[in-house]
Amino acid sequence: MSSAFATKLGTNYCPNVEEAAELKALLVEPVLRLKRLDDEIAEMQRAIDKLTEERNHVAAYISAHRALLSPVRTLPLDIIQEIFSACLPTDRNCVMSASEAPVLLGRICSSWRAISLSTPSLWANIHIAESTSPPTTNTPSVIFQKKMAQRIEIIKTWLSRSGHCPLSISLAGSTSEWTMVPFMEAILSFAHRWQHIRLAVSEVALEVLGRLTPTDVPILRGLWLNDVRFPIDWSRLEILRAAHMSRLGLWGPGIKPEALSLRWDQLTELEIGDTSWRQPHLTNEAILEMISKCSRLRCCKLIFTHRVWERIDVAGPTIEITSLRTFALQTGREALGIAVLGRLALPNLRHFSFSGFVKCLQAVEQEDQTLCRFLNTTTQLETFSMRSEPFSKSFLLQTLHSLPPTLRQLQIMVDGWGIEPISPFDDDCLRALNADPTRPYLFPKLQTLYINCCPRISDEAILEFLHARMALEECSLKRVHFGLERHAEVDISPRLQPFFDAGLDNLSVGYLRISFSPWLGVPPAPGVFDIDILPRNLYT
Length: 540
What we know:
The protein is α/β, with parallel strands linked by helices. The protein has helices at about 15-25, 30-65, 75-85, 110-115, 140-160, 175-190, 205-210, 285-290, 360-365, 370-375, 395-400, 425-430, 460-470, 495-500, and strands spanning about 125-130, 165-170, 195-200, 220-225, 245-250, 270-275, 300-305, 320, 325-330, 345, 350-355, 385-390, 410-415, 450, 480-485, 505-510.
């Protein structure tokens, strides 16, 4: 369509009176034509809507009949039950929520609901969360009591559906008497089927547990008592001597291993956390004595945050545990718990993590190289994680060279406690993981590398490391993370794609971000319920 105003279109030109009249006359026919086109489109749209409605009706008819041919309808009951079981979480107990199995499975259709309710194994584990807002007075409100009663009834209904299956129960939340007692009483009636129990312990809970004897919990295999905030007379807990107890976790102040009446030789998993500061009992010698009793131990986690300055006799007898596969040691800021490693022999250890702090590691560096000597004996280690305040580059390199070639996962993390957390991991350390003419690759089976707080690593060194690793004939590297804690100097993202093409699953390089907000310091807009205490025109 030609126009005398073609050169003026799309500009800021302002027509005069005569041109405005000419424009109005020019648009009469196009406006009429536009209306005809709109009417025609509307008519066609009505035809399309009618066809769409008919199409949807036919599609619904087909879909409803095809549903009868769905393969899942022909699955045997035992297969459906196995599928339902696979929907349950594997790393924790089921929560009482409609957003996940088994409750969710019962809301798909009536037949699935019937199957889920008639499958006891789906209801054999439960996580019980107490109220996050317990009553603030000694007399809870009627509403709170009603909610508690409903919650208790749901728990009993859930567990009653589990038939005769062994139970796994975890209880978390408040340790107040008003909430703890009803929950403990609710699960106590099922004690004969307890297999794994995890509780946040209060004096009330301890009193309830103290009623139980080993005969009351004939199939109990695992017990974890968390959040202990007061000294415990462990001799009151007879259930610690349950006939089949093999997994134990105790977290609280003043734990005395010698006071625990346990079947030590049955334990395969042990977690001990002594959180007391004033009168610690989990000393190095106590640790060694305790571990020496656990001949079948496969997993051990020890945590103590108190001051342990004792030195152990490194010339003492070595304690060898051939069954141990996983060992985690976490010490406090001024602890020397790492000294126990000098007396341990764990020839089949697969996973080792150490979390300590600067004074501990400085003692290791300056004295007897305990950690490095221990690592030299772990010839089958696959996972190593170290987390501490900053340590020296020489110690880091010695540690890396002490690790065996079987290593698959390496994690070096630096935390700060009143000082700047800077890792000594630099280009030299990263290059040490690659081969050179004098030695082969460190960790040829490495799959995961995680390094944080390492501003001394350059982008070029990262690319060099990835090139060297991904060029291996049998490259195993899959996941890499560098927390550089510095600003990006160049954009290396375009150069990373070849590594993903070569088989790398995950690569993250974290930089510090520079952010300047023009809104910094501007007061927020007043809310609906804000009250002006001072007049807004105070300075006018």
